[in-house]
Amino acid sequence: xxxxxxxxxxxxxxxxxxASEEPVARAAREFLLDRAAQAGLVQPEVSLKLIAGDGAPLxxxxxxxxxxxxxxxxxxxxxxxxxxxxxxxxxxVVRAELSAQVVVAPGGIAxxxxxxxxxxxxxxxxxxxxAEVTSDPEDVIGQSARRAIRAGQVVxxxxxxxxxxxxxxxxxxxxxxxxxxxxxxAGEAMEVGHAGDIVNVRNTTTGNVIxxxxxxxxxxxxxxxxxxxxxxQSAR
Length: 236
Hints:
Blueprint: E1 2-8, H1 21-38, E2 42-52, E3 65-70, E4 77-82, E5 89-105, E6 121-127, E7 144-145, E8 153-154, E9 160-161, E10 164-166, E11 171-178, E12 181-189, E13 193-194, E14 198-203, E15 209-216, E16 219-222
Domain Flagella basal body P-ring formation protein FlgA SAF: 101-221
Pfam family, one: ChapFlgA
GO biological process, one term: bacterial-type flagellum assembly
């Protein structure tokens, strides 16, 4: 076996390779860049290492056909180059690293509170493991982390949840709007709720329990009221 190292940026040309190696490297690179594009990642770059196995190097009269044998794990993908006329084939293990500009927490983020815009930024990082990353800060701003995120750590979207706006036993304000008329009442939340959740709330004046929609921090409205259209959000 022998190894071929390739550093491939998004728009870079491939270095000189054996006839059967160049199509394999190009196919692996295009596969990973396409995956990055589908995920909306910004400025993706690919670094490849080809490990040639049985049948390599391959000599074909025409350009070989490339078959993707296993692309589940970028760190160890398998490809084959096949001569169209003779059927001769060579197999390659492709060890790849994909990097991109992704959302990180430069100063760390505390757990269980909404993430603010100033707490995140974009930095180039290698994409490894099972982390679900994003290149759009708006995907994480306003959500909360299940556990604290360390300074400099990539923000993994799988660890994020909508923030809890109403907690069980908390005093809440029940808001009922009818055109210009606004009626409020004091209540007690009987369940935990996120934005838009329907929870049981006890009116502390009447003792009645109603179903209410969570609309803000410790604020609810009767669930049978129509949902008001969202106001345009100002730039963060």
